[in-house]
């Protein structure tokens, strides 16, 4: 799952060298800011075929938060 | 009662010790009464407006959770108040309402209802309660304090409910807080009285006279306005944060070395942070979330809408609209070119890239601020025309120094140069000075220098009102 997410990050942030860990946050990726945050969310939603609510989107602080929620939604 | 007035200092000299020695359970009441006195000092209409609107928001919030119609009505009423505030402010087209023996200026009342910062906090509160992220307040006094706490009621910082309410119950005042608040207040007073107000005549000379100045002179005026605005508003914020700290409250930081930003998006993370935070949370993200399937177009629409609303919030008119459009264009450009700029920054010398970026961003911000400061759109266009006509003057003393120093006398020139020297030194040492100003220890050299510089160089009689008080 982390690998799939890493590919999404690489596509959205236009950098094939990106390596993602659960701790990766906006501080680690120059391209990740409020202007690109929702583009990332949309790409993650498309990749995993799910929808996040607004408050869930606002609660993400790092890649791990996203992964945990995806696992929770897909596990239902 | 402006922050740099003798009356305000007297007000603090009484309030801070009384609040410190008062049992904790009486402090909220004291601060509500003090805030009421502070607002009522402007005019009684403002006080009535703030009390009526606080009660209005407090009571509708109790029924608003999940009630969409009531939520929309509440937000619209608060937003309408902001628009009326700006409209009346722009046109000064008021009317008096006299009934029997009571004379009540209806315009002042409406203006005060829309006190922009105050209304933003009301909207934030209603939104948080509507979306069930916050329980409605049960104590009216606490709500009135959140909405009208005097250090932040006129020009922010904008505090979200979750940032303020918990502080009411945990309020503690230590000696360290008193010292740190005092340092911060003094620092703000220095920024306002010694730098911002001393730059004011030079800016006034370039922006408000109809002379066809040379490009270089106009450019200097445009640079100085942005610097004046920074010192004026960040000085105000330092004073607000300092006073609040001495009363046991931590307000949000509003500035973080913004003139060193290497992109306009970074600038907006460092300048007027609390306001842009409000706009991001309550306008930008909700809009982009809804439109997110359009990818980059969604962010572009979000940026445009956020800045258009921010422009209207600052004032109604073509000048603020153009200012907002400038920033929407800057941010749109940055969004679309972000990857190529990062790639470029990795290829060339980092320090060189940084210096060039800071220079470009500063110029872009100064350009937009021509519209922000100019009295009318035609005046702004005239300044831009001046900027690109006869850039180099024929005589430095006559064409550059005299307009900026507002006079050709040696004393005027000395005053102008001394301001420039102080501001350059300040900007160079800013990070270190900020550390001292937020320290919990008294630094004798810092306090002595601030006091001496304020008394020697400060503007006491003809100082400008804080620029952001008009918004």
Which descriptors would you attach to this protein?
heterodimer; A: 76 residues; mainly alpha; Non-ribosomal Peptide Synthetase Peptidyl Carrier Protein, Chain A; globular; B: 471 residues; 2 domains; two-stranded antiparallel sheet; 1% strand
Q: How does this structure look, described?
A:
The complex is a heterodimer of chains A (76) and B (471). With 76 residues, chain A is an all-alpha fold. Chain A contains 4 helices and no strands. The radius of gyration of chain A is 11 Å and the shape is globular. Chain A has helices at residues 2-12, 37-48, 54-59, 63-75. The longest helix of chain A has 13 residues, at 63-75. The two termini of chain A are 16 Å apart. Chain A has one domain (2-75): ACP-like (Non-ribosomal Peptide Synthetase Peptidyl Carrier Protein, Chain A). Chain B is an all-alpha fold and 471 residues long. Chain B has 2 domains: 6-159, no CATH class; 177-470, no CATH class. Chain B has 20 helices and 2 strands. Chain B has a two-stranded antiparallel ribbon. Chain A binds chain B through residues 13-15, 30-31, 33-36, 38-39, 41-42, 54-55, 57-58, and chain B through 131, 133, 265, 280-281, 284-286, 288-289, 292-293, 295-296, 298-299, 303, 331, 334-335, 338-339, 342.
């Amino acid at each position: 799952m982390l690998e799939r997410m890493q590919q999404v990050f690489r596509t959205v942030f236009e950098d094939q060298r990106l390596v993602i860990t659960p701790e990766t946050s906006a501080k680690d990726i120059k391209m990740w800011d409020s202007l690109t945050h929702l583009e990332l969310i949309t790409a993650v939603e498309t990749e995993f075929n799910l929808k996040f609510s607004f408050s869930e989107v606002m609660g993400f602080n790092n890649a791990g938060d996203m992964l945990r929620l995806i696992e929770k939604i897909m596990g239902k | 009662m402006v922050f740099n007035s003798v009356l305000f200092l007297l007000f603090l000299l009484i309030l801070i010790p009384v609040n410190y020695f008062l049992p904790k359970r009486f402090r909220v009441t004291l601060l509500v009464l003090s805030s009421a006195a502070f607002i009522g000092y402007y005019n009684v209409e403002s006080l009535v407006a703030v009390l009526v609107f606080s009660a209005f928001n407090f009571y509708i919030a109790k029924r608003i959770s999940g009630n969409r119609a009531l939520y929309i009505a509440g937000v619209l009423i608060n937003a309408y108040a902001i628009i009326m505030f700006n409209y009346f402010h722009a046109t000064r087209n008021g009317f008096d309402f006299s009934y029997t023996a009571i004379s009540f200026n209806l315009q002042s009342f409406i203006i005060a209802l829309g006190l922009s910062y105050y209304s933003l906090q009301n909207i934030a509160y209603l939104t948080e309660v509507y979306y069930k992220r916050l329980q409605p307040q049960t104590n009216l006094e606490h709500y009135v304090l959140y909405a009208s706490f005097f250090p932040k009621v006129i020009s922010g910082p904008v505090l979200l409910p979750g940032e303020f309410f918990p502080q009411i119950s945990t309020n503690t005042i230590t000696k360290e807080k008193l010292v740190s608040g005092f340092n911060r207040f003094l620092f703000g007073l220095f920024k306002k009285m010694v730098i911002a107000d001393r730059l004011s005549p030079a800016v006034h000379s370039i922006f408000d006279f109809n002379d066809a100045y040379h490009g270089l002179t106009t450019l200097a005026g445009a640079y100085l306005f942005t610097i004046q605005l920074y010192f004026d508003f960040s000085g105000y914020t330092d004073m607000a944060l300092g006073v609040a700290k001495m009363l046991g409250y931590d307000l949000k930081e509003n500035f973080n070395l913004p003139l060193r930003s290497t992109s306009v998006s970074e600038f907006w993370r460092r300048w007027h942070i609390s306001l842009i935070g409000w706009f991001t949370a309550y306008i930008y993200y909700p809009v982009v979330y809804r439109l997110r399937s359009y990818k980059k177009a969604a962010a572009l629409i979000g940026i445009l809408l956020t800045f258009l609303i921010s422009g209207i919030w600052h004032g109604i008119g073509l000048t603020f609209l153009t200012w907002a459009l400038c920033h929407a264009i800057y941010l749109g450009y940055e969004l679309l070119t972000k990857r190529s700029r990062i790639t470029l920054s990795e290829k060339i010398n980092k320090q060189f890239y940084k210096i060039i970026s800071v220079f470009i961003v500063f110029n872009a911000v100064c350009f937009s601020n021509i519209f922000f400061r100019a009295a009318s759109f035609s005046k702004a266009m005239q300044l831009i025309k001046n900027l690109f006509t006869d850039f180099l003057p024929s005589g430095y003393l006559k064409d550059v120094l005299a307009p900026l120093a507002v006079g050709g006398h040696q004393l005027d020139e000395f005053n102008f140069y001394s301001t420039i020297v102080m501001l350059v030194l300040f900007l160079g040492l800013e990070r270190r000075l900020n550390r001292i100003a937020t320290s919990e220890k008294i630094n004798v050299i810092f306090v002595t220098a601030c006091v001496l510089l304020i008394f020697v160089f400060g503007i006491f009689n003809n100082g400008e009102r804080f620029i952001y008080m008009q918004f």
